[in-house]
Structures are given as structure tokens and as C-alpha cells.
Amino acid sequence: PTNTGSGMLEALDPEQRAAASAPRGPVCVLAGAGTGKTRTITHRIAHLIGSGHISAGQVLAVTFTARAAGEMRTRLRALGVHGAQALTFHAAARRQLRYFWPRVVGDRPWDLLDGKLRFVGQAAQRVGLGADAEILRDLATEIEWAKASLVAPDDYPIAAARVQRDTPAPTAQVAEVYRAYEEIKNSARVLDFDDLLLHTTAALEEHDEVAREFRDRYRCFVVDEYQDVTPLQQRLLDAWLGGRDDLTVVGDANQTIYSFGGASPRPLLEFTRRFPDATVVRLERDYRSTPQVVDLANSVIAAARNRPAGSRLRLIGQRPDGPDPRFAEYEDEPSEAAAVAARVRYLLNAGVAASEIAILYRVNAQSEAYERALAEMGVPYLVRGGERFFERREIRQAMAALRTATVERSTDEDLVMVVRRVLAKVGLTEQPPAGGAAKERWDALLALVEVAEELSSTVEGADMSRYVAELEQRAAAQHPPTVEGVTLASLHAAKGLEWDAVFLVGLAEGILPIQHADGDEAAVEEERRLFYVGVTRAREHLWLSWSLSRHPGGRRHRRRSRFLHGLLPEHHSAARLGRARQLRDGTAKPRCRVCGGPLLETMEIKLARCGRCPSNVDEDLLARLKEWRTGRARELRVPPFVVFTDATLVA
Ligand code: ATP
Ligand code: MG
């Protein structure tokens, strides 16, 4: 690498540098969001390699989502590091298991199970438990929790009672379903995601020569987002270490958002008890967000209850001032979605890249309204769901079709053309479907075409087999191709990531905190941490919104989220409302909706902008604006303007 020694560490502040340059051995960085934890570990890896302490192939860095792992690889590459593995726990385990399987089991590696709920359904049926789709999902969650917590079927009832799991059936019955599920799955010779970790752990724990070979190869371990480690992942990590202590962990206990799935910040907070001579670093400078966003994040987390010692950090914003976070209340969900989509459109027009904008929500079901609103406005978007791009049905079908095509006689037809032709057979139409799941599938398939385009422009004479090999390599590393567009993601999937503009939507009671958390303090606190994760994703623009009813004309039975309490600026609730009313009456001098500055005299009627901000005002907008101001129209939907942000507050 060109970046050797300590030169690259100049891009770090003194505390970050202390962690990055610590000698090999246990290192722990405990710090809040945006303080540069991920940056510190990538620099540490680069530094250890660059200064000759270790070779890239001996490093194994793990994190929790495929996108976060991809982000780590990108940052490593930018630092001149090639060949260091940065993967999710699952991808790492899967890769190791494939390698060791023939020696440990003596068989062809089992496939990943497809359609887990079907298996859970068969298991429920076998034990005589009538279960609808929702109960099946809850049963699957319980099985996942038990496996991640290293709880066997026999021990499930006691373990579940101890942590007061809210179970979909009596615990003895859930245990029976769990047992049956394992039997059915094993006889089908398939593995679920947790099995990848369980079997890899067992291979290392029970086979000396497997462990020896592994430990000889990997010598330096790094874990990002360590606050969300499960007992199963910890056990795998311990099997990797095999008593060694070359382990760097970074995390933020305030971002623990998977307790429900068995994760716990305890290993992070008790790291020094386990490794008394560990280098411990705390960071408090926030390099990601504007002071306005940082202030809000501090308030959110200051309101948290029962914060463990070691997690009381206050972030100090380092960036220049930016716009104040905006709060907006809407009559109903479609209005909220339309307003957000209009704002997005506005940002795009103002030159913000689509990939720098995210709409984040609590549950995936919320994405639909936003997909529709964005599609209506012609805004490209991508939905981040389970992250498991290569496990998607249409992608597996596509891969099968592409593999078959490599053995057919190939002509000297252009690679991209061949790929398009093959993918047409599995559903890649010329024109994209209007929206929803079909559009998502289409986008996923299109992403495969883009890989072909990328390959043929970078590799001379790349053919089908080279292309398929590339895809297989990416699948093994869980390195999904990027789909360009505005990101729609759940708060869970957004962890570790950042965007210039973030919309946190649906901030209403029953959604965030989610209904079933109500009355359970620990669950409500986890919801609050999710909110904190959401707020801290924004670099600059942050919009927080909610709506009072689900459907237009519905009963206004929703209240804004309790987490907003004390966050809304004073003037927002009273003065701003009054001002919006005056604007509507035409008695106040309107201000530019973009920069807040006074409007040019001649532009007053336009209300939406001052004439200095870059955007086009169309005549239709002005006409509709007039309608709205004179009270003839109740609602004002005028993309790309968000004139109605305040208007709906008036309602
Ligand atoms: P999270 O808890 O959300 O995962 P994090 O602590 O991992 O956050 P990073 O993603 O590493 O934070 O850093 C946040 C942003 O701040 C990134 O864009 C990063 O490049 C930038 N940053 C971090 N440290 C510095 C620094 N010393 N100088 C300049 N920019 C920095
Ligand atoms: Mg990070």
C-alpha cells in the first residue's frame, strides 16, 4: 500500500488516533453516533497493515448489515487496503462453513433454507397448533431469538419466562414448534441463517485441526456495532479468537436496537472486565451532523431512562451550522407521504443527489405510501429491506438462468445484450412496473444488468462466465450491487449509515413507539434508541413528520410520538401555527420557504420562494396557491414546493 505508517492517521483526531495506532491487542471504542468509530477501525486496519504489523489476509472485520459491511470495504479500499475481509457475521460464517463442511460433515454443503415461514407452519401443524400468518411470524421470531440466545428447545420455557418474552402461544407449545422446526429443517438438509453461525462455531469448537487452520490464517479481529452482538455471535467470535486477544470492538450502547432479537450491549460495556489491559477510547466529537442535528440527538438520548454506566456521552457537533430540523404534522398518511415526496423532489431539483436522501420508518409496511408518492412524482427510489439481495427469489432465479446461459453456445453478442435477454425470461420487462413489490423486483434485476455494464466497461473482453463469476463472488461476500435512488429503509436497516437529508416519518404513537411496546418500559426505551439512530443518520437536513389518521377523511385518532415531547421548538407549536394561519389569511408577510428570507416584493404572491433559490415556479402552482389562500382549496399539493407544511399544521 502507498499509505504506510502513521501518515494516514493524520486524518484522525487525537482520541481516534490513539485507538487506531494502539499496538495489537484488545481495543475498545465507546462512543456516540457520528463520532468516527467506523472511520477509526478502518484506519486502524489500514495502519496495522501499512506499518507491517499484519497482512491484509489475516484481518477479519465483521458488522451486522450487508450495506454496513459494503461501506467498510469501500472505506478500506479508499485507504489502499486490499484483501482484508469485511463481512457480516453471517457472510463470514457462511464462507467458513462452506470451506470446512466437507471435512466436518463429509457431504455437499447444505443449501440455505428458502421460505422459513413454510417450515414454521409445518412445525406448528405437526404439534397441532393452529396458527395464522401473524402467529407464524411471531413463532419464527421466537425461534430466532432462542437460537441467537443459545437457548435449546428444552430450555426455551424457562429462558423465555426469565426475560418475559411476549410469546404467541404458551411457552411449552412454542418449544414444541421450535423442536419440530429443527427436525423438519434438518431432514430437508437445509440451513437457516442462525445455523450458519451455530455450525461454524461447532466446527471450530469440536474439530481441533479446523480450529488450528482457521486461527493460523486469521489473527486480527474487528467488530463494528458491537453493542448489538448476540450470545451466538459472541460465541462464534470467541471460537475465532480461541483465547487470543487481538480484538478491536467499537460501539454505542445508546444504539442498541436488537435486544428484542437477543442482542445485548453487555459485552461492549464489560469489555475491560474481560480484557483489563485493553486500550479504551471515548469519543465525543460528532463529525457527521450539523450542530442543529446534534442538539436534537442529545435531547433525544438525554430523555432515555436506565442508561447503563458508560453510555452517558454528550455529542459535540463539529460541523458548521445548518438548517434547523423541521417538524410537520399532517392530516393523514397519504398527505404526509405526498409532502415528503414533494420535499424530496425539491431537494433533487436543488442538486442534492438521490443517493444522499433517505426516508426512514419504523415498519416496512409504511414504505408503500412513500413508494406510491415518490413514483407519482417520478422520483427513483430503492427499498432497503432484509438486505439479502442474493437471497431474493427473483435474483436466485436470475442467477440460475444466467448460469445456464453460460453453458449454451455463446456468440460474440455484446455481454449486456445477452444478460438483458436472459433476464427478460425471469421478468425484466422493457418498461418498469408502476410501483410496489413488482417495481422492487424489477429494480433488483436491473441492478444485475448494471453489474454487466460496469464489468464490460472495466474488463476487456468480459464474457458471460466472467460475469457470472463476478456475481458469485459478490454473493459470497454479500456485496449487493447498488441501486441508484432515494433510499427507503427501516430504522433498523439504517444503522451505521448516513445521508445529507433524512426524513423520519410516521412519528406517531403506536408506530414509534410501536404498539406492542406500550406499557413495557424496556421495549419503549429500545424504541427511543431507534429514534436516536434515525435522528443521527442526518448530516444536514432533518425532517420529522407524523400524521393524525391513516386514511384521508379517517378519524384523527393518532397522537404524535411521545419521543417528540420537549423537542418541538416552542415557537413551532404556538407562534408558528399562528404565523401559518396569518399566512393563510394573507395578513403576514410571507417568507421564502427555502431559506426563510424575505420575499422580493414582486414575488410576494409566490410565497414559496424568494427568487434567489434555484427552482422553477410554475404558473399552475401560483393559481393553486391563490385558491388555497382564499380558502377555496383546503389542501395545497404543489410539487416541488412544500408550501403546505405549515398549512396542514393549521388545519
Ligand atoms: P455510527 O455510530 O452512526 O456508526 P460512527 O461513530 O461509526 O457512527 P463514522 O461513520 O465513522 O461514525 O463517521 C461519521 C462521519 O464523520 C463520516 O462521514 C466520517 O468520515 C466523518 N469523520 C469521522 N471522524 C472524522 C475526522 N476526524 N475528521 C473528519 N471527518 C470525520
Ligand atoms: Mg459506524
TrEMBL record:
GO CC aspect terms: cytosol; DNA helicase complex
Stated name of the protein: DNA 3'-5' helicase
Keywords of this entry: ATP-binding, Helicase, Hydrolase, Isomerase, Nucleotide-binding
Regions crossing the membrane: none
Presence of the UniProt keyword Isomerase in the record: yes
Lineage: Bacteria, Bacillati, Actinomycetota, Actinomycetes, Pseudonocardiales
UvrD-like helicase C-terminal domain span: 291-540
Any single Pfam family the record assigns to this protein: UvrD_C
